[in-house]
Amino acid sequence: MVPEIQTRYVFTITARIAEVTSAGDIGSGVRRIIPIIGGEVRGEGINGKVLPFGADFQIIRPNELIELEAKYAFETDDGAVVYVENRGIRFGPVDLLQKLKRGEPVDPKLIYFRTVPKFETGAENYRWLMQHIFIASAARHADRVVIDVHQVL
User: Is the pTM here over 0.85, yes or no?
Assistant: First the structure.
């Protein structure tokens, strides 16, 4: 018998972002780099601040599918530093994705934005973050990305 997959919500990462830098069309899409400049982590047993460094490295494919890979860190209220690598995709109607690119508001329910965050830390009380798989649902806003992280049980 194979265990059934279930998830449970654990915390929300709100990453504040700065202006987008574009490296232009690289042949397979447009490379964009979005600096992560701070934010917060709030949830069950984990609270802290997103550290003001790191970035989201994206490729926007010709059909507007966005492949993303964010690398950054957060510090918990009790002093542990947690490194985050978050890979995922964002996709939806082209007109709505173009509105998001311009910084205009779009209902997050209309955009498919899912990620697989991976965590690393030497802090003993947060080692469980390295011993489980996580999935996340996210929403892009003009000045931040909000990521609801769920543990796969």
Answer: yes
Q: Which of 13, 20, 14, 16 is nearest to 100 (CA)?
A: 20
Q: Which two tokens stand for residue 84?
A: 């985050």
The rounded Cα 24 to chain-centroid distance in angstroms is: 22
The two three-digit tokens of residue 12, written as one number: 């929300």
Neighbours of 140 (CB within 10 A): 22
- Report DSSP letters for 28-46, one per residue: SSEEEEEEEEEEEEEESS-
Domains defined along the chain, listed by start: 7-152 (2.40.160.20)
CA distance 17 to 20: 9
Give per-residue pLDDT as tens, 22-46: 999 999 999 999 999 999 999 988 9
Q: How many CB atoms lie within 10 A of CB 79?
A: 8
Find all residues with CB under 8 Å of 132, minimum gap 6, and list them.
Answer: 151, 152
User: What is the distance of C-alpha 1 from the center of its chain?
Assistant: 34
Q: pLDDT tens digits for 90-140?
A: 999 988 888 887 878 889 999 999 999 999 999 999 999 999 999 999 999
